[in-house]
């Protein structure tokens, strides 16, 4: 049982604030760190892994500081996003080197055990530079887990991994979380985080935007007002009819289409075809105009 | 403090890269050049190459390649964090990597100077040159390791130091000898053979070499202790 705590942690680079006053407590189980690219996830991860000093605040694991404390790595397994440059080593040699660096009493056995765990026994004799992205990712996880740490930190572990391998990795991480480890992974893809993490921390523009189980986060995200662009045979009639709906917040005529802002996504989508039919209007096109993840995040921050 | 796993990985990094062949090219060229001049020219022309070319150029170039190979690429692409995210003293990491760079520098830098000097005859001055090269090679490798730990442009920065400071200014102004690693080595070698130049004070040469070596390795370790990743932000 290991707890990773950020206490009002901030990090700035010159005038640029990358992480702004973030307080988190991450316990056992799988936690997803969600945020758009450039939100400060990597900076946060670097601070949690002891590879960046907080400009203000504290980062601790079970009360012990992470920065400039090499002993803390007995408790941390780190899977960085950047690639391995040890292409001249085989998978087994690489994992073994990690075991040796931890001075494990039986490094050879620990290496084999963890290779088995990530299902990499068969390709372990091959050089790292012959591996696929998913295999490299699994070897990195094996190397991070070989000393049986309480905390596993993974930075964008699914980036560039093909869907089948991704499933495999997710199963692995879920299992590690169920074993009682504190597993934290970062991602900019909501679906990814939702499928794996029970608990989600959202960061946007360096700030801690939301925290909770994925159901709550999902509701926050889907219950926000959504903007639609609508084309029909008679925009003006449809606009009048839409305005009478409880779920519709605003309608505006924009050239050949309508901009509709909707509060409750579900009832709007279900009711729209019936409404159009009732007023004898043919719908040509309905498209969300701000479905990008960035707009979801922007909403969360503005909230 | 020495960590065998780090040293083994550093050695593999050194041998596994194409730079290694470049590292071998310098001593081969030096020996070939000295052999050629010994065969063609009369007198001691060949020997004069060694303090003039071997010391201020071949030795530091080999040291630059060795030091930057054991540390540079890993710092550049950040993959050194795989080694640093371990309960291992960062000074230990620096020392282990330095030992490998030192071994490579002495093997591919100092030893060929001995071989080349023996080709020109007179073994006393050859051994004197070798001892001087051991001193200078040790100091160079520590200095360049420190530079590799600080900047991504370690090779360029180190080359500037060697070409401008040691070679160009060192030949123009005798005072530079007091601050030139190659000259310190020559001064130590001078004790064994008076045929070597006598550029500076012996005590100074020894002390300065020791200080630069110790501070260089310590500084590399200290930089690794504060090694930071900057995200994409």
From TrEMBL, chain A:
GO terms for molecular function: ATP binding. CDD domains: ABC_DR_subfamily_A. Residues 4-230 form the ABC transporter domain. SMART domains: AAA. Keywords: ATP-binding, Nucleotide-binding, Transport. It comes from the Bacteria. It holds the Pfam family ABC_tran. PROSITE patterns: ABC_TRANSPORTER_1, ABC_TRANSPORTER_2. PANTHER family: ABC TRANSPORTER RELATED (PTHR43335:SF11), ABC TRANSPORTER, ATP-BINDING PROTEIN (PTHR43335). Belongs to the ABC transporter superfamily. This is ABC transporter ATP-binding protein.
UniProtKB/TrEMBL annotation, chain B:
The chain crosses the membrane at residues 20-41, 53-73, 94-120, 126-147, 159-181, 201-220. The keyword Membrane applies. It comes from the Bacteria. The keyword Transmembrane applies. Keywords: Membrane, Transmembrane, Transmembrane helix. This is ABC transporter permease. It comes from Nocardioides astragali.
